[in-house]
Write a structure and sequence with these properties.
4-stranded parallel beta sheet; 36% helix; 3 domains; disordered N terminus; Rossmann fold; 5-stranded parallel beta sheet; 476 residues; 19 helices; alpha/beta
Amino acid sequence: MPKIFFVIFFAIVFSGCGTENSKTSEATAEINLKNSIISFTDDDGKEINMDKPAERIISLYSAHTENLYYLGVGNKVIGGYKTCTYPPEAAFLDMFDYNGDPEAIIAANPDLVLIRPFVRRKSPDYVSALENAGINVVSLYPDKLEEFDNYINKLALITGSEEKASILLTDFHKELDSIKKITSGISEKQTIFFESTETNIRTVTPNSMAGLAIDFAGGENIAKNSSPIEAGSSIAEFGEEKILLNADKIDVYISQRGSMNSGASKQGISERPGFDTIKAIKNNRFFTINEKLISSPTFRYVKGVREIARYLYPDIINDISEYKNDNPSTRRDFANILFKVKNLPLFIPSSSSYYKTERKGHTFGLFEDINWQDRDFDSIETSVEHGYIEEIKENGKEYFKPDANVTRDELAQTIFVMGNFTSNNKNIPISDITESKHQQIVQTLVDNDVFKLNNGKFEPNRVVTNNEILKILFEL
């Protein structure tokens, strides 16, 4: 999109709006094409003036970092905050902490430090030290979903990525509208309770990002009339008493996990007095969701909305029609089939310490041949993290090999991991058992009549079709 568009856009939309310190007021942001002048008021009410887009950025908020990578300017980010885990490469940035020594940032010589208003309120001396050192500090944060576009456009202005922002925002809203269109046509709506914190069994306000996600996903929010715990908060009171009064109405129970809430487990929920009477708990429809997906202002919000929709209406959202065929199945197909048929909860690292912990198996996001921008990244990573598909290690590196075909031997291992199979000592003769990499698994599954033999052969290296995979999964 031509830069001149943003001159017109910001002048029309934001001229004459409110006071300088108002979150909804925005001074005219303009770009002089000759001198590359960028000027606007940030969310701390500070006048920002830049003669060119930033080239060396330190981001002290993980959402800013994530959005910069989406905008295609991750190469300009030289440092992040300690909670950065997405995209995976952001977890390996030099990390800085506004609770620490500002000299660390000053020594890194950035031309821009991104913060949010919370940082200035919590560590005013830290921010002042950066500004006194001549570093440009910009504070941005969209309090509401309706402010997201404006927030992204500002990030784009100061990083020179306006055209990319326009494309991403268009797709963002198209995807949200697509989910809403699907779920709005569902006649039997599912009722949901969204637990934001275990403390006092609180929920979210209806107009919060998480509350709006429930609407997009087509859920009936049992707590839609809840009031915020304080003015401006996205957390609302609900409580144990109301939960139990509505126990027979709650179809789906979702617990949010994040920095403010570790997230309840199904067992933990069931052990709360009376909670085993909740319809969702009795029907095994309890789920957790990471707050990064649903309460953080990033482009991954769409994934969070879709995830809630999957929990509410799995048979509709997890459409597998494209895999009902006799085509040889690839590992990419296999991951998508598993993700949808088993309705696997989307995996993302839940802790900033994830990449600091030594791992024996696969490390999220570190495949050499699948990156976070791949269309099937989520289903592939989730299937592997659940242990249903093995990573392939060569020369100390991890590969997924998405185009490789799935064999009966590989399918057998997946089915064994999914099920609860034990040896029944039938020991049915398998003439080609030695060709299998998983001989004991194959023997157990054949003995349990999960796999059939062909003239006494298992055929471990035979490629399976998508229909063969679907058939055996539905028979489990």
